[in-house]
Amino acid sequence: MNEVKVAQDFMRRQLVTLSPHTKVLDGVARLLRDNISGAPVVDDQGQYAGVFSEKSCMRAMTGPMAAALDLGISAPKVREFMKRDLITLSRDDDVFQSIDHILSKRISGAPVVDERGNFLGIFSEKTAMRVLVAAIYDQVPGTNVGSYMNLDRNRIIGENDCLHDVAEKFEQTPYRRLPILLGEKLAGQVSRRDVLRAQHRIAVEVADRVRRGGVSDSVKESAREREVGEFADTAALTLGPNADILQIAQLFLNSPYRRVPIVSGGKLVGQISRRDLLEAAADLLRPDPERHRASPLYLSPLADSLPPSMR
């Protein structure tokens, strides 16, 4: 019988944190500089106060983007900031090897294409969560990427779409990346971070214009400095240090979150991301060549909370 890991066994303790009083542009710059998609917010007494996520950042950028329009600062088209050199997967790739691949490349997902380069779907950390839950409950020995990729075509955007339109799509959906197609062929991809980086550049330009003076009061109001605490997600789900690996997997599977703060006595003691969970579950996700079925785990009685697709 496998030993069940709990949050304190693999949570990250050395974290980038922000104060509620950190200026928004400084907070966004910190996330971009450290190449992270969010940071816990901790007050002066060390109490956990929420999460400043990429979506929080995009909400915070609404004012500066409105000011940019008033100032005539043009927003770039997708073709100007999309990524063209992408890591891709095939639908026939082994799902466990593909999870290892995205972990080793430190990416949160990859487009799935056929032999002609036609776009088929996305295999992401969240779809990998489904593999984890299936492996635990159904003792799935292995399958291919095509069985787990996300097929939603509403996430597709065009290279002539505007930054503002793409930012709105990200705000309205749980997706972290949007593919760009030419016909049916994958031409590139835009992530939330790509959009946020472009927005931050524009917001800095707006702030500079406001400092130089000669702008309207409405522009000043749209561009005024705001604090991280105004936009932090204070309702973000948290877990305690003894939450087991399946509880954490189910949280990720049933929510849009990419990280869960680990809180004890109101204080932040660590954090677990989807990547951390997948790495901790690597032994479970990689089939043992000496056996054909995954060993069942003794876990919390959470079967009733499984989504219908996993029952």
TrEMBL record:
Pfam families: CBS. Residues 11-71, 82-139, 232-290 form the CBS domain. PROSITE patterns: CBS. Keywords: CBS domain. It comes from the Bacteria. Gene3D superfamilies: CBS-domain. SUPFAM superfamilies: CBS-domain pair (SSF54631). InterPro entries: CBS_dom (IPR000644), CBS_dom_sf (IPR046342), Diverse_CBS-Domain (IPR051257). This is Inosine 5'-monophosphate dehydrogenase. It comes from Stieleria maiorica.
